[in-house]
């Protein structure tokens, strides 16, 4: 595996973290600020610097490169696989009447299955139901092919997100990257670092990822009581106080953050499903708690590997970034302390993370976690 990596801010020159060399048919991952991805001049600069065919774009709530967390930048990581290969498929949620499950099924059906080792998702993040997307992708999977990835971000604006493959970034795109080859070793882990507080309540009315009632009371009204003065900062304020959701037939809880609110219906739209009869509880954290969570995620991802990772794809939540603020790079440093300085690190801050629980093969949508995908040939 050969990797070239660089980052750039507007009106500044490229800065390389990995030496600039010519690669053969690389997978090029471009994670960047949404406003820059909408700038055609800037995209032309990216294409000129990395004149390759297989370019994948995704907007972010912060860009990760090496041990740095950047804002208002573009991070490009070009990966040449020497013993293995990749395929990229894409579809737009707007062509599926915003039905993420149908889109997921369609995307997976177009992906070649022979030798498929892993699937990595870079998805639109403002109106795709991440839980439904995973259900659709997994519907056709009969082996233990793992899925990881994330929902694109837009800082803390929640206005729109962008993604694409080959084309210029646009709204509604979901990109699925398949990795192939016996020589590949890919491990995944996800961990949060949040703790629950307050009473445990019951979801009494919901529809997929829209939450209407908790304990028979309007969900938004109840949530605002907990937020107090911060209620007028919704949905951004919800990133500091996510919900811990335990479905009645599941062993593990998932964390859910709020993507939008509907004042008329007194409802909240979350990044993933919140089924009726699920138990729900508020959560909170600290900078040290999140740093420890990142450390735990790295330990889990690195634990049973045969080879040392060469590439680390990190997807962390925008809520973590807001809590950690100026100390946000501490969670990247914790990851680096575990996986080593020689590993190329890239990734982004997201509106949702995709990964299975430790020891499981089925994928889940997570919020407020650090998720790692470690790759070597």
Structure report:
By secondary structure, the protein is of the alpha+beta class. Helix content is 20%, strand content 40%. The chain is built from eight helices and 26 strands. The chain has helices spanning 34-37, 40-49, 100-110, 130-138, 219-227, 287-302, 318-324, 329-339, and strands at 2-9, 15-18, 27-33, 54-60, 63-65, 68-70, 73-80, 85-92, 116-123, 146-151, 163-165, 173-180, 185-191, 195-207, 210-214, 217-218, 243-246, 254-256, 258-262, 267-270, 279-284, 311-317, 344-350, 352-356, 363-366, 370-376. The strands form four sheets. Strands 14, 15, 16, 17, 18, 19, 20 and 21 form an eight-stranded antiparallel β-sheet that branches. It has a six-stranded mixed β-sheet with strand order 2-1-7-3-4-11. The protein has a six-stranded mixed β-sheet with strand order 6-5-23-22-26-13. A hairpin with a 2-residue loop joins strand 14 and strand 15. The longest helix has 16 residues, at 287-302. The N and C termini lie close together (7 Å). The mean pLDDT is 94.
Topology:
Blueprint: E1 2-9, E2 15-18, E3 27-33, H1 34-37, H2 40-49, E4 54-60, E5 63-65, E6 68-70, E7 73-80, E8 85-92, H3 100-110, E9 116-123, H4 130-138, E10 146-151, E11 163-165, E12 173-180, E13 185-191, E14 195-207, E15 210-214, E16 217-218, H5 219-227, E17 243-246, E18 254-256, E19 258-262, E20 267-270, E21 279-284, H6 287-302, E22 311-317, H7 318-324, H8 329-339, E23 344-350, E24 352-356, E25 363-366, E26 370-376
Parallel strand pairs: 3-4, 9-10, 22-23
Antiparallel strand pairs: 1-2, 1-7, 3-7, 4-11, 5-6, 5-23, 8-12, 9-12, 10-24, 13-26, 14-15, 14-21, 15-16, 15-20, 17-18, 17-21, 19-20, 22-26, 24-25
Helix pairs in contact: 3-4, 6-8
Domain FIST C-domain: 219-357
Organism: Flavobacterium glaciei
Domain FIST: 25-218
